[in-house]
Amino acid sequence: MTNPILSVRNLSKSYFSNKQFLGKKTEKKAMDQISFDLYPGETYALVGESGSGKTTTGRSILKLATPDTGEIFFEGVNLLELSDKAWRPYRKKLQMVYQDPTASLNPLKRVGKILEEPLIIHRMGTKQERLGKILDSLNAVGLSPDHLNRFPHELSGGQRQRLGIARALIMEPKIIVCDEPVSALDVSIQAQILNLLLDLQKKRGLSLFFITHDLSVARHLSDRIGVIYQGTLVEEAPTDELFSNPIHPYTRNLLASIPGKKPDFSGTGTPQEGHFVSKKYW
After folding, report:
1. CA 231 vs CA 11, 23, 29, 35, 149: distances in Å
2. What is the reported pTM?
3. Which of 36, 110, 147, 231 is deepest in the core (most CB within 10 A)?
4. Region(s) of the chain under CATH 3.40.50.300
5. Domain 1-93+174-181+208-282 belongs to what topology?
């Protein structure tokens, strides 16, 4: 069996508000003992409502958030044990596509400079070689050389998200964390971006960690789905199996909330191989 390219083990993260109850600050668990694997060439979707801990999990993989406890292994190396200097080479291998392309792009820089910046930071290639990589990345996401001198505000929402994907691709990563990359786009554009991600994954052998609240999107894109509820991973299964035989009540509610869908939950409700159910029910 193929070894996972990414293994997350017992990841936990809490935030404390300034509001106090009985003299103690209120604690909110963003992640509570999260564990999962991501395999080469696979798309793993993490699904849950807003505030469930999806984005914190994704940001932790890239060390944009610091977990309180846990381990994150990338190709056998525990990323959380690395110093800033030792972590630097791994930034090229793990990239992120953000939910809001407008907020993630520097409004004062043109497209060419936005794509060149990570190459300069990592000292990759000569100026001419960097231009070649920039043009290749633009072409891969359906943008043309005519976009090189445009500012982000001169692009449409779909073009800005394509630029965000190009910026991630230019580093030739092995894993891309996609944080709700289509939720801010029109429905017609969403399909284009999802199909683009699938096409790039097949051509480049990428592994995708896809964060979404939309089960319809997860079904279209993913090989396996993990369901997160209040910071806890309550269920995990191959996509088709999760839709045909959901076990946890929260998963059933998510499926029942899909517009126009009336899922058949006539199964026995007995956990099967590939599922796990937390002890915490609401």
Report:
1. 10, 24, 6, 11, 42
2. 0.85
3. 231
4. 1-93+174-181+208-282
5. Rossmann fold (3.40.50)
